[in-house]
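To whoever is covering the structure queue this week,

Two jobs came back overnight. Logging them here so there's a record in the thread.

Job A:
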Amino acid sequence: MPLQVDVAELGGLVGECIIFGMYFILLCRATRSYILRWRRHENVAWPIPVFAGTMFLLTTGQVIADSINIFIAFFHHETRAERIAFLQDPTQAMHAWRYSILSVMVFVADCLVHYRCFIVWQRIIWVVLLQFTLSLGGCICGFVTIGLARSHAILTPQTQSALLTSFFALTFSANVISTGNLRRTSIIRPFLTSLSQACSRTSYGSTIERPRKYFIPPSPHLHLSSASLSNLAL
């Protein structure tokens, strides 16, 4: 027997709240770590706290919107048929709010991956321009789908499927490209390290070696793992 949409929505909300609780605990630990670093006057990159704060607001809004949607469905409709009809109606205001927040949240998460790639590649904008364009296109596809549904336009299942497929395909492609660029840094790092040492010896003599300054940060695999997990979650 197929799972009904009201049961699926309720179960999804329970799982969402559990994951949100885990996320909130990790966010508190990360915030404490950043506060300690600020107190020690360490250099902390400001975009990371900005991304974290934005994602916290979006995820909180997503949980609230989903909870209100379930509350309206179960307490404002007497029969199960009415409840299912409400949950499947894309013209409802809560439907637009939920998926608008989701589209923005996915875009912000993509931008965080692109920012990591941008930093690893020494702030070369051309490295992340394509990925950013793909993520922006995916976000636009999400809002186009919501707008067509809200305006009572003739949205056939084929059109809706094409827009949703484009949304996830563009987001996935952007993450794959950024992750691939992060992976490529780990491949070329040994060559760049040896080149940096050779240049230091040539400039300062073989007996005096300049302190090593790598083009690539020393832990590209950490960035790669984080980007891969973000890609998997999206």
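Job B:
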Amino acid sequence: MKSLSSKLMALVLALSMLMGTVVVASAASSTDYSVKVEDNKVSFIQNGKTIGTYNSKDAKLKLVTDKDGDLLVCFYDANNNYKRITLGKQTSLSLSGSMTSLTLDKSLNDSLSFSVSASVGTMSVASKNSVKISGKVDKLTITGAAKVTVTKDGKVTSASVAKSATLTNESSTKIGSANVKSSSSKSDTPTLRLVGNAGKYDSNRDDDDDDDDDDDDYVARRKPDLDIGRLEASVGDELRDLIDDLNNEVDAYWEDDDHDEVEVKGECKWKKKNSTELEKSGEYSFVFTPRDTKKYREVSGSIYIRVD
């Protein structure tokens, strides 16, 4: 009966994907699904077999828990339709392949665990889950009280860590930078554990502070957090051509004491001249200016632009 049930579940998944409906997976570990993203194709795999595949728009995945407590894998398909694939009460999920971005939403059940062996451009963790990274992440942002471990096979180029989070680096590759997010004073630091030859961390790092800023001003005007995506351009394009895309790819928010995110409205502008022509892929700096400058401070950031 167990074998028959497993086969029926696989059939339901395949048929549901064809119909564009959601799927409920069994909670048994033997029938857990994993997710693989290759060439903008999102595949759901069970027991080593691909059960169904979607063509995604941009290989940007978001993991959430719905009101019924089910784990959802969300993304836009090639027709710009938003898909929510349900994995039911599955308690862990492995993700592999290559994706533009991966977001672990704050709605996720705390008991869920995730393993990421994929190559990820931007990874955002707003939840309290346990996460293991054995793949390559260009930019890691942790805004929730998550416990994130970079294994010996993993690599994180840069990290931004909330004071409530734990980041453990067991790899031999250093994390380029790990700076405080959502701090209310300069003495606040995240729980950052460095194991072995781990990344450097400066608890006083604040790229946007002037040396003459006083502590009262630091506390009074909150520093928004930025969730930054990626951009694509062609050789010869100017930065002015990407200003709208820049503002679409940057979300600003403030995390309160309850770890709830409050949206901060504002505008991004390039630090370089708008007439700057793009010649190669790389990081390009910008400044985010909040509308409410009495409550929030300007924040500097950088976004990766892929130039073809």
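Note for Job B: The radius of gyration is 20 Å.

Please reply-all if you pick these up so we don't duplicate work.
Q.
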